[in-house]
Amino acid sequence: MILEAFLVVAAALFSVGLFGALTQQSIVMLMMGLELMINGIMLAAAGFWYFMAPTADGQVIVVAVVTAMAIEMATGFAVVTAVYRAKRVDTTDAATELEG
Q1: Mean of pLDDT over the chain
Q2: Torsion over CA of 82, 87, 92 and 94, rounded to 10 degrees?
Q3: Furthest-apart CA pair in the chain: how many Å?
Q4: Burial class (CB in 10 A: 0-12, 13-18, 19+), 48
Q5: Residue 64, CB half-sphere, CA atoms under 13 Å: how many?
Q6: Cα→Cα distances 85→21, 78, 90, Å
Q7: Per-residue pLDDT, 94
Q8: What is the residue-wise DSSP string for 35-72?
Q9: Is the pTM of this model over 0.85?
Q10: Per-residue pLDDT tens digits for 57-71
């Protein structure tokens, strides 16, 4: 594999995630788009580290990013679940009208 292949796949992941984040109204689908965008960035960073400086430092940072993504998504889904149970809101348009 070459670096360009990693970057093409990373750009494709980021593009699909950006499209999903900008076009979906469901909060869950929006979060999935954001997750794809983060995965694209992480794949590009891991590819650069692998080809430019093949040390364990890059692997440690990728594991830390994956852990942070898992925590972020768990927290996000918890908030979405709480908002849905309280107000029966599951789209971004309706969520903008929430108060207090």
Answers
A1: 86
A2: -170
A3: 52
A4: middle
A5: 7
A6: 23, 11, 10
A7: 74
A8: HHHHHHHHHHHHHHHHHH--SHHHHHHHHHHHHHHHHH
A9: no
A10: 777 888 888 898 889
